[in-house]
Amino acid sequence: MAPLSSLLVSLLAASAAALPQDLVERHGPGHHAPKCKPHQVRHRKSWHTLSNVEKKAYLDAEVCLMNKPSTLHLRGARTIFDDFQSAHATLTEIVHYAGQFLPFHRLFVWEHEQALRRECGYRGAHPYWNETQDAGAFTTSILLDPVYGFGGNGVGASRCIADGPFANYTNALGPGYAINDHCIDRTIQDFVSWAAHKQYADRCLAKSTWLDFWVCVEGAPHTAGHGGIGSQMSNPVSSPGDPIFYLHHAYLDMLWAKWQAQNPSVRLTEMGGKNLGDLATEFPGELFPTDIPPPPGFPGAPAPGGPGAPVFNLTRPWEVQAPAILGDPGNTTTLNHVLQLLGLGPDRTISQVMNTKGGYLCYDYDQ
Ligand SMILES: *[C@@H]1O[C@H](CO)[C@@H](O)[C@H](O)[C@H]1NC(C)=O
Ligand SMILES: *[C@@H]1O[C@H](CO)[C@@H](O)[C@H](O)[C@H]1NC(C)=O
Ligand SMILES: *[C@@H]1O[C@H](CO)[C@@H](O)[C@H](O)[C@H]1NC(C)=O
Ligand SMILES: *[C@@H]1O[C@H](CO)[C@@H](O)[C@H](O)[C@H]1NC(C)=O
Ligand SMILES: [Cu+2]
């Protein structure tokens, strides 16, 4: 009985063009992916609510990734931590300002969690940084605790971080595409971090379509975390050199999951947007909010090119091959789009990462 009914289900599914997710699951690159069972769902929590023991376990596992030799030998990488940063650099052009922005970073953070667990014995779920709580005041966030956190702001002209578990790490890559030894650096800008305020996150959560939501999130909430921490974190290419990157992107992923949960029957399959990312050009949204003024005491966003505005060299060097667009050849991102990981984990289609507990992925959030 069971084999017959499952055969019927497969036949029905195969003939239904309306079920691309099922087709991709059975024929796509991840058809051997284990299913997520309810008792296996890992619950991701805000960093601010973790116990010191939980914080230490996460930080120790990240230090462990920084001490493990590279397994993929991606461009410039010496450690597994570097492999992640290097993959992000190589893929930068196609995974930002494009429809796959949130899906790619969802999978990227998931594989980071997998690596912490597989390589370093981490047993928890990936935490996220509830940034609304620290908006306008990143400098005093408990995230930057020297013992139970990521260490503080950069100091001196080099902007190297001077305390915390990552103080002595030597990044092999960055800024940008450069292969270049340097410290983990930070230049926290509280006026930029104001864009992490709840009113900007809520504005995104109130959007009714995927296109409006994605563009909104890649604007203010995304910009606030990167620009608010500054230095390496604000570089679109090499930002995963600062481990805060992973808590920032888990936060944006939480916003997406929260938005999806408001209308799952539509939003678990709603995709679209430009298929060809091209960094700073033709982004359909605004990168820093201008419609809600910051409170008194905050000078607002730095003028483009003015003092305080970061300057990046985003020219891809000749030895970094332009990443290909795989799975959906048109101009619009679809559920068939293949999210490339360059070996960090198996490539996945967007349809496979739409639901955080839908099969391949297996986690949820505390909000
Ligand atoms: C996140 O921060 C907001 C304040 O901006 C707070 O209301 C909310 O409870 C926090 N969420 C969690 C899960 O701690
Ligand atoms: C970093 O190096 C300094 C100087 O050698 C040392 O005092 C400090 O304990 C080191 N920190 C870590 C987290 O290894
Ligand atoms: C920017 O990076 C490219 C590729 O690495 C390099 O050829 C170029 O000289 C750099 N430009 C500046 C202004 O540093
Ligand atoms: C895709 O975009 C390119 C460049 O803008 C354009 O020439 C082409 O006609 C578009 N193709 C489709 C199918 O819309
Ligand atoms: Cu990114």
Automatic annotation (TrEMBL):
- Signal peptide boundaries: 1-18
| Domain annotation Tyrosinase copper-binding: ranges | 96-113, 242-253
Pfam assignment, any one: Tyrosinase
A Gene Ontology molecular function term for this protein is: oxidoreductase activity
Q: Which UniProt keywords apply?
A: Copper, Metal-binding, Signal
Matching entries from SUPFAM superfamilies are given as:
Di-copper centre-containing domain (SSF48056)
Q: Give the superkingdom in one word.
A: Eukaryota
**Mind telling me what this protein is named?**
Tyrosinase copper-binding domain-containing protein
